Amino acid sequence: MSGQARLIRSLRKPTQPVAQAQIDRLGFYGSRARLRKAAMPFFDVQKRLGLDLDRWMTIQSAEQPHKIPGRCHAFEKEWIECAHGIGGIRAEKECKIEFDDFVECLLRQKTMKRLSAIKRQRDKLIKEGKYTPPPQHLGKEDPRP
């Protein structure tokens, strides 16, 4: 039988179902696909048992275990809404303000820098004698009943 006759004969045969093709280690289009040796089905055990152990840790905007929103929930939500669906490269440029606000909320670098500058200025004024802190800030206040 020639190659052309085999092709015509194979086209007349009904194709096997997709499930059977996968069992026979064939891909959806009949090509042999390499399968992993330890391919096991994935079951979402947490969802089936009604547990929510680690899903809330991925993003703060997700539903939290005790319904208490994260500290930076609003900033993260703004950033995710801005970056959603536009791709990583565009999101870096177009959502930079939202991302910077979110990072500042998480790390508080500018806040700590500002507080240390205030403390340095306060210590400088105390050293020069231009400022005297109130007694409750020095620990010399009378104890309350």
UniProtKB/TrEMBL annotation:
It is found in: Mitochondrion inner membrane; Mitochondrion intermembrane space. It comes from the Eukaryota. The keyword Lyase does not apply. Keywords: Disulfide bond, Electron transport, Membrane, Mitochondrion, Mitochondrion inner membrane, Respiratory chain, Transport. Disulfide bonds join C72-C105, C82-C95. One of its GO terms (biological process) is mitochondrial respiratory chain complex I assembly. One of its GO terms (cellular component) is mitochondrial intermembrane space. PROSITE patterns: CHCH (PS51808). Accessory subunit of the mitochondrial membrane respiratory chain NADH dehydrogenase (Complex I), that is believed not to be involved in catalysis. Complex I functions in the transfer of electrons from NADH to the respiratory chain. The immediate electron acceptor for the enzyme is believed to be ubiquinone. PANTHER family: NADH DEHYDROGENASE [UBIQUINONE] IRON-SULFUR PROTEIN 5. Belongs to the complex I NDUFS5 subunit family. This is NADH dehydrogenase [ubiquinone] iron-sulfur protein 5.
